[in-house]
């Protein structure tokens, strides 16, 4: 009886709950619709964003490989050094360590030629050795454009490991930590006693520098061959 009374009072015992439910369902639907709209808008926008960022990254990588990789195959893997240009401060630090000096200068791995151009401006006769033919070509074009005679600055597309460096009394290097020890041995064998070697960012592990300029990533070190040889002889005698 009781249950009948309740039923008759509300005409439908679950009516109110149904209304509540249908309101909730409607709101959920509205939320879902809103979300799906947002989602479809995002998925419409996302391919464009993804494609654009993909194209940008591919472009950057393409440019990097274009400039960094040619010539790489010719060098043993343990001696490979990628292209990374010197900063302005680093270049200035190199020039400070070359103050008062003159003559022939070799930049081992000359990149776009910036160290060579800075040194020619101070009166050095420079040769940039660069294994990457595109960078060598770029430096040559820039040199012509600057009106620098080839007797003052020349760029050679050549592996410096296979080059005799005995005629250079100034050598600049911005390479990689892994090659410095091997390079030190080569320079010690070939360079004249009066030669000065400037190392950028990575010092020679076995050599004692005569002077240093700057700090952090821009630090440069100067090594004088006569001092290096003297110290090597002393160490060998001990
Ligand atoms: C870190 S970058 C320095 C570029 C430039 N000297 C500067 O300071 O902006 C090193 C350069 O050395 C070149 N390189 C590496 N190994 C070489 C090799 N065996 N002979 C000639 N160049 C080399 C690379 O192609 C790269 O351009």
From TrEMBL:
GO biological process: one example: methylation
Classification via Gene3D superfamilies: Vaccinia Virus protein VP39 (3.40.50.150)
Domain of life: Eukaryota
Statement: the UniProt record of this protein carries the keyword Protein biosynthesis: no
Signal peptide residue numbers: none
A GO term, aspect molecular function: protein-lysine N-methyltransferase activity
SUPFAM superfamilies: S-adenosyl-L-methionine-dependent methyltransferases (SSF53335)
Keyword field: Methyltransferase, S-adenosyl-L-methionine, Transferase
InterPro entries registered for this protein in UniProt: FAM173A/B (IPR026170), SAM-dependent_MTases_sf (IPR029063)
Protein family per UniProt: Belongs to the ANT/ATPSC lysine N-methyltransferase family.
Protein name (database record): Uncharacterized protein isoform X2
